[in-house]
Design brief:
78% of the residues lie in helices and 0% in strands. The protein has six helices and no strands. The longest helix has 25 residues.
Length: 134
């Protein structure tokens, strides 16, 4: 049962990451505003991170690449955290929103550690192999 729950959580995370990656293309300008103006090639960075999110999601679903994808997804989520902090401090609305809700911008920061925990837990290959050998 625990394995089924992990697989379901992993698939849900991957779908979330694919959706987020696609949003980098459909709402690229909104994502680009989340980066400080001094950052060069902001829209290019947004497109690159969109591709990366889609790629990581796919690699998480492939058993042979899951362990590495799990690690790199956590690293990626840590790397983009400063952009979320910047958006909260600067009051930049989330892509697709007309104006910023300061409370939601700060609450969103609390979800980043949850996303990191989610991917590390759901894609934990060690726990799956132990339960299979028991």
């Amino acid at each position: 049962m625990k394995t089924i729950l992990r697989i379901a959580a992993l698939v849900l995370f991957a779908l979330f990451f694919i959706f987020a990656g696609v949003a980098h293309f459909t709402q690229g300008e909104g994502f680009a505003t989340m980066l400080p103006e001094w950052v060069p090639f902001r829209l290019g960075i947004i497109y690159a991170t969109g591709i990366l999110e889609i790629l990581l999601a796919i690699l998480l679903l492939v058993p042979s690449t899951r362990k590495q994808a799990r690690f790199w997804t956590a690293v990626y989520l840590i790397a983009i955290f400063p952009a979320n902090i910047y958006a909260a401090i600067a009051g930049i609305p989330a892509p697709g929103q007309e104006e910023a809700n300061q409370t939601l911008l700060w609450i969103r920061l609390l979800f980043q550690p949850l996303l990191i925990w989610w991917v590390l837990w759901a894609a934990d290959t060690k726990n799956r192999s132990k339960s299979k050998s028991s």
